[in-house]
Amino acid sequence: MGAFVGINYFRSKEKAEETLKEVKRYSDGILLHGNVGKFDEAGKIVREFVDVAGRIDILVNNAGIYKRNKFEEISEQQWDEIIETNLKSCYNMCIHSLKHMKEGGKIIFISSQLAFRGSSHGADYAASKAGMLGLMRSLALELAARKINVNAIAPGTIDTDIIAGYSREQRMRRIEEIPLKRLGTPEDIANVCLFLASNLADYITGEVILVTGGLYIG
Q1: CATH architecture under which domain 34-211 falls
Q2: Residue ranges in the chain whose pLDDT is less than 70
């Protein structure tokens, strides 16, 4: 929709290049390499973007990894890696980006349905995504005086690499649980993100939009 987009990647350079190619069909952008879970690297990413774009209007915190382990199988190293990538990255990117964000800015967190329901095979992931919501609500209160809107999206089961290991039976079982009878797509999340990033959402802050195909109706 005309935004100049900074696309961060850490390992997946080829996928980042594909994303930039898609962005350039509509506007323009740059690739920004680095691990947003590391404080100094996040600062470098922000500086590189601002050097080109001049400012930051919209920040989407969507770095995330998910490793399917029972709680007693989670090593301290894995716990730290999940929290660093999924939650500390949000602190890192917000603290650096807010120096360059003026009135009217938007911050969007990509959380998860598991922030609400927990997980029987990913307590570390669920904890990180629930922590994001606490940070989001706190920033929404604090930044309202600067007219910066802060919200979150909680996706349901989305057809991405995270569920690539599902068997056909697992996919069908999950689809049967969803009232709309299909898995979500990345576009379903992107459309809500676009709404929250636009001036159509200027009077919305501190909210979580569940994008789950109706899984939590009630």
Answers
A1: 3-Layer(aba) Sandwich (3.40)
A2: 218
